[in-house]
Amino acid sequence: MRGSVDWRDVKYEETFEQELRGLERRRESDQSCRVEDLEGLLRHLYIMDGADWAGRGEVQDIIMAATIAAYEQVIAEWKASCGR
C-alpha cells in the first residue's frame, strides 16, 4: 500500500523542523550569535557524521542527516539575506 508514510521520512521531517525552530529561536534571542558560529557547529557536525566508525544505527543517521540539512539551510538563508 503506497498511502502509508515511511517512519524514516517522518523522523527526518520531525528532526529537520525541530532544528530549524531551534536555530531560528537562537538567532532571535542571542544577539551575539553570528553565521560564523553556525558554520563552526556545522563543521563539527560534518566531523561527527564522518566519525561513525562504530555505527550509530539508522535512527541516529536520520537525525544527523536532518540536523546537518537544517544547519545548511539556515546558514544559506542567513547569508542570502546579508548579500553574502
In brief:
The protein is mainly alpha-helical. 76% of the residues lie in helices and 0% in strands.
How would you describe this structure to a colleague?
Helices cover 76% and strands 0% of the residues. With 84 residues, it is mainly α. α1 crosses α3 and α2 (35-50) packs antiparallel against α3 (58-82).
For the structure shown, list the relevant keywords.
mainly alpha; 84 residues; globular; 3 helices
In DSSP terms, counting alpha (H) and pi (I) runs of 4 or more, how many helices? 3
Fraction in beta strands? under 5%
Taking the sheet with the most strands, its summary is: none
Gyration radius (Cα, Å) is 15 Å
Globular, elongated, flat, extended or rod-shaped: what is the shape?
globular
Low-confidence stretches: none
Measured between the Cα atoms of the first and last residue, the distance is 46 Å
The counted number of beta strands is 0
**Structural class given helices, strands, pairing?**
mainly alpha
Overall average residue pLDDT: 91
Write the H/E string, N to C.
HHH
Share in helix: over 70%
